[in-house]
Amino acid sequence: MTTTVDGPPRRSFRIRVLQHEPDPEPIWPLPLPRPAADTWWPGASPAPVPQPSAPDPAAVQAAHAAERAEQRVIGASVGLILHVIGGRVPAPRLARIAAPQVQRYAAAAAHRADLRRGVGSRRPTGPAPGDRVCSLRIDRPAAGVAEVAAVCRFGERVRALAARFEQRSGQAPWTCVALRLG
Questions:
Q1: How far apart (Å, rounded) are the C-alpha atoms in residues 133 and 169?
Q2: Residue 99, Cβ neighbours under 10 Å: how many?
Q3: 21-35, 52-66, 91-105, 140-154: least confident range
């Protein structure tokens, strides 16, 4: 350290310049692939390019119909889970469509104070007008797996709901194996 008479001590630093230049990155993978020998000769015809075949309209319609049916099933399951969380339906009703840990989570969420609200009668008839699924998005990360993100309304409150559904043989078409309420 260097001291001065008029102020606080100053530190002296040494800066050393390093001479380094990184290796340039190749623009394309090396070595370059060689084209077929026929295309280099004058007058040679290029190799035929395969044309994509048109999909069968009946197969496309059948695939769309199956996808819409699965979306309806998953949407109805999310609606039932919403009614359980809202306290309108008892949790054992989820036994057909949900794993036991999901049933326990939904039953516990039904007792959350931020989701409860006063109801005039002891036995409400049907869902409250404000309890509903506002939007639903289904992603398919793998075959037999559907991940759901939903925005749900509980009275005046809006919550996010995330769920994972899996297809299991011998059970209902889609089983909810994970559920989280935001």
A1: 28
A2: 18
A3: 21-35
Give the C-alpha separation, 173 to 146, whole Å.
Answer: 12
Total residues belonging to the chain = 182
Residue carrying structure tokens 């040494």: 14
Number of other residues whose CB lies within 10 A of the CB of residue 87: 21
CA distance 115 to 178: 20
Give pLDDT tens digits for 113-137. Answer: 666 554 444 444 444 555 788 899 9
136-147 per-position pLDDT tens digit: 999 999 888 999
Query: Buried b vs exposed e over 52-79: b needs ≥16 C-beta within 10 Å?
Result: eeeeeeeeeeeeeeeeeebeebbeebbb
> Does pTM top 0.70 for this prediction?
no
Which residue carries 């090396």 as its tokens? 30
**Residue 7 in tokens:** 């102020």
- Tokens 């005046």 locate to 156
Residues 84 and 21: their CA atoms lie apart, in Å, by 64
Q: Which two tokens stand for residue 161?
A: 């709901």
